[in-house]
Write a structure and sequence with these properties.
Keywords: Signal. With about 250 residues, the protein is an alpha+beta fold. The protein contains nine helices and seven strands, in the order αβββββββαααααααα. About 50% of the residues lie in helices and about 15% in strands.
């Protein structure tokens, strides 16, 4: 009985010694935090012991003191700074440097539409004295004959007329492509890629017709054109119009 009592006392003593030894391994680790590459102190940085989950915030001078043991990992984090983790490898003061996160300023880019670009260029011509897109009206010729003559015969006037004509063609082509385009033609005809372009060029409808037709009429026009293409190819092109009526679904 006495032996068991002595063994119990011994075990309690060993446990107390181990607990005390472990407690002695935890120390107060002090230090301060600066912005990387400078000596500027960083306040309100969260200092976290990852093992114990204990944390605190640096003071106005960027200083801190946290309890930690050898082998613990300390994490330093703050908004707009890169988070840093470091192991405790010595019971000495720490000096930590945090890298600021580069915040890209939002840039709003407002792109001009095609029509805005054309208008801008025509305004440049008008600043040079070219009015009415190089084609003055009869009334303007009477009220301002000098400007009218310049608008007819001047080099800038000829350039303005040429630019206006090209711009009109570009705009009409863009409008046509919204209704008569490669994806739609290929879906309806199932033509191979190397034939779709040839078919579209041969049976391309007039701009004025396309602007009057609705989607059903465009589809029927493509179907009718395709039947002619299968019979005659592109060597003989009969005059085609969009047939009336509701088309079958392609």
């Amino acid at each position: 009985m006495l032996l068991k009592y002595k063994i119990g006392i011994l075990l309690l003593t060993i446990c107390a010694f181990c607990f005390n030894a472990k407690a002695q391994l935890v120390h107060d680790i002090s230090g301060f935090v600066c912005t990387k590459g400078t000596s500027v102190r960083v306040a309100q940085v969260k200092v976290l012991n990852k093992r114990t989950s204990a944390f605190l915030m640096t003071d106005d001078l960027g200083s801190f003191t946290i309890k930690a043991a050898l082998g613990d990992t300390i994490e330093f984090s703050k908004d707009q700074f890169t988070t840093v983790k470091t192991p405790v490898i010595a019971l000495t003061d720490m000096v930590m440097f945090l890298q600021p996160v580069v915040m890209l300023q939002q840039v709003n880019i407002q792109g001009q539409t095609k029509q805005q670009e054309l208008n801008s260029i025509m305004n440049d011509y008008r600043k040079k004295g070219v009015y009415y897109n190089g084609k003055p009206s009869a009334l303007s010729a009477i009220s301002s004959p000098i400007n009218a003559l310049y608008s007819i015969f001047g080099k800038d006037a000829r350039d303005a007329r040429h630019f206006a004509e090209m711009s009109k063609k570009d705009e009409e082509a863009a409008q046509d492509n919204r209704k008569y385009n490669r994806a739609l033609v290929k879906r309806i005809t199932n033509l191979p890629d190397d034939e779709v372009g040839k078919f579209m060029d041969a049976f391309r409808p007039l701009h004025d017709d396309l602007m009057k037709w609705n989607d059903y009429e465009v589809i029927n026009y493509i179907k009718t054109s395709y039947e002619s293409y299968k019979k005659y190819g592109v060597t003989v092109l009969p005059k085609l119009t969009a047939p009336a009526g509701t088309p079958d679904k392609p």
